[in-house]
Design a protein that fits this description.
The chain has a three-stranded antiparallel beta sheet with strand order 2-1-3. The mean pLDDT is about 90. With about 80 residues, it is α+β, with helices and mostly antiparallel strands. A hairpin with a 2-residue loop joins strand 1 and strand 2. It contains three helices and three strands. Helix 2 runs antiparallel to helix 3.
Length: about 80
């Protein structure tokens, strides 16, 4: 049994809420992009390059936060059940 969780976020300042299943998506960012129909192919290539060239995980996190903000996402959180 996989516990379903919910994600709350804003897309272009519109509040949204979706279900999240760990078996379907790598993380909540993949789930929200899929919910909005956004192709992450180029993002994932860039993320991989950042991972390979950066020394710590903060560079990858900063890159992700900036890119998702650029795509129109904000206030991305898991909802505590």
């Amino acid at each position: 049994f996989i516990m379903a969780r919910r994600i709350t976020y804003k897309f272009k300042n519109q509040p949204r809420e979706i279900n999240f299943a760990k078996d379907k998506y790598r993380d909540m960012y993949h789930a929200i992009a899929a919910a909005e129909g956004i192709d992450l192919t180029n993002y994932l290539k860039m993320e991989q390059q950042v991972e390979m060239t950066s020394k710590g995980s903060s560079a990858v996190r900063n890159f992700r936060d900036q890119e998702f903000a650029r795509m129109g996402f904000s206030d991305v959180y898991f909802i505590k059940e």
